[in-house]
Amino acid sequence: MTTSTVLFAFGLTLVAGLSTGIGSAMALVAKRTNTRFLSASLGFSAGVMIYVSFVELLGEARETLTGEWDQRAGNWLAMAAFFSGILLAAIIDRLVPDVENPHEVHRVEELDPESDRHPKNPQLMRMGLMTALAIAVHNFPEGIATFASALSDVSLGIAITLAIAIHNIPEGIAVSVPIYYATGNRRKAFWLSFLSGLAEPLGAVVGYILFLTFFSETIFGFLLAAVAGIMVFISLDELLPAAREYGEHHVAIYGLVAGMAVMALSLQLI
Question: In angstroms, rounded to a whole number, what is the distance separating the alpha carbons of residues 204 and 9?
């Protein structure tokens, strides 16, 4: 694990996290949401994450763990780690109240220019701030996932960064909409949304500390399998439902298949 690899992994995590600013910019600048494109993009992101989780991360985790332990014990450890990752993501999701859940679908059309002349609604400020906090909580394990994947394989880390960056776009919209309505200030809405993504590199820092403190082949294999579980949960619980809400069911599925196909092809060409 060289210094350049660690720095590059941190850089990818930062890019993935701060992509919430893209969603915020879309909400504050665009006139209409391109729902078909966003739906296909979210489906594509889910396809990449699901394929990578089952084909690459889980496979590498099993190979690492069975190399350190015997075949039976290594497979059991990989399975336990995979479902531990799912459980962690599910617990975090359950801790966020439904009314402030960042995965509720929002569209840029909600930012009606006419609302500039309406009285501001300060009660929405709490919703916006709590949504930003909720996104930060959700982004934390995603930061660990991106960081660990990039340490395992740089090209894999790039693919996951792209997938999570797409995933973070609707979250940026989810923060911007209520904060803008609460304050009437587009700049404040943008920056609060943008900064909510900083929890992702914070997750990478925690992952790095864990690597430095407890690093072993067993810990690394366990972490890779847990990351696979986290990403599968994110895809099934967040990305695909949001993709269907934004657009047609078939558009989301086409995006899913395309994401899997592109990931499979890129892994074969590497």
Answer: 8
Are the C-beta atoms of residues 48 and 162 closer than 8 Å to each other? Answer: yes
Residue 227 makes CB contacts below 8 A (sequence gap 6+) with: 53, 57, 85, 144, 145, 148, 149
Residue 46, Cβ density class (10 Å: 0-12 exposed, 13-18 middle, ≥19 buried): buried
Report the 10 Å Cβ neighbour count for 94: 9
Count other C-beta atoms under 10 Å from residue 123's C-beta.
10
How far apart, in whole angstroms, are the C-alpha atoms of residue 226 and residue 220?
A: 10
Please tell me the distance from the alpha carbon of residue 27 to that of residue 121, in angstroms, as a whole number: 18
Residue type, 112: D
Buried/exposed code over 17-29 (b: 16+ C-beta within 10 A; e: otherwise): bbbbbbbbbbbbe
pTM of the model: 0.71
Round to whole Å and give the CA distance between 98 and 108.
21
Q: What's the DSSP call for residue 184?
A: -
Q: Residues 86-104: pLDDT tens digits? A: 998 888 777 765 544 445 5
Other CB atoms within 10 A of residue 247 CB: 22
